[in-house]
Amino acid sequence: MDWKKVRRRTAGILAAAGLTLAVAGCDTLGYYYQSIGGHLGVMAQAQALDDAIARAQASNDTRLAQRLGLARQIRDYASRELKLPDNGSYRRYANLHRPYVVWSVFATPELSMTLHKWCFPIVGCISYRGYYAQGDAEQYAAGLRREGLETYVAGIPAYSTLGYFDDPLLNTFLYLPEGELARMIFHELAHQVVYVRNDTPFNESFATAVEMAGVERWLRDEASEDARASYRQYDNRRKQFRALLLDTRDRLDALYRSGADDDAKRRGKNEIFDSLRRQYAALRTEWGGYIGYDRWFDQPLTNAHLAAVATYQQWVPAFTALLDSVGGDWTRFYAEVQRIGDLPEAERHAALSKLAQPAVNTGTLNAEDHSSGVGKSSH
Question: Which InterPro entries does its entry note (predicted)?
Fold first, then answer.
């Protein structure tokens, strides 16, 4: 590892954070320290792919060697065919010996689908707060609940440092099905192309649109028939589950915006969540007993579960339509996304709203989600 480069980039982050840290309270200081220390800990465990593959072969771990080789092919494809950054990201590997790299905390009021936001140097205001230790995330969520907020703690297999570091491949997503592995790499690299401060729905929807189109091309160009069939089954289940969640989210949002009193809203909320559980049970039966989304129900259901999912979907139709409008030309697409991203917020959202309508009308939207902890994403 080029530790000189790592130290230089870390110094830049610390310098950018300096003014905030100077006036921050103990809680904020502790959060920044765990964030920086946690990431440097991840980086310290990373090794070059050649070395990782050689070690896997030497220990007769043929599965690991094969997956690292596949990841390298996907990574090369990302830059060659999708015009994503050609840098050191995802060209190293780290085994963290845990199921997720971070755990993100999402929070909402009791009777609202509006996600709480946290503001930080560099990335601006975002709708989640990430921790490198699950216990820390759970502890922070417990504090938010004492303040009257509803919370959801989601395990996240990957995140992007927006190009400040060469993010490594991780054991937390390396063994996903081939299409899912490609989706993960494409999504995280997309964050390095365009990132708009203080607009999580824009950033996540853009990266989701890139991953969707990218994985379709990877499957068409590079994957075996078995890999394509496996991904189609996986993806169809995810789309059904996402549609159920987004429908439930819309029903709750309509309830909270209605003129009903708070007690009536609480009763309606309970009924809607009961309906969600019943519909999911029916889906499981339809899927032949597949339990891949059971973990989503491990925590008591809250608004935060559903608001987190919606964050990754809002502008996907707009970006999908934009990519179609430039004939799938990635360079032109990224330039246009950057142009829209540079607009003032109201103009940006108006432009995206105008783009979104044709995508909805023609049925081209494929709902995807990343870091909400549903299926996979991110951050």
Answer: Aminopept (IPR014553)
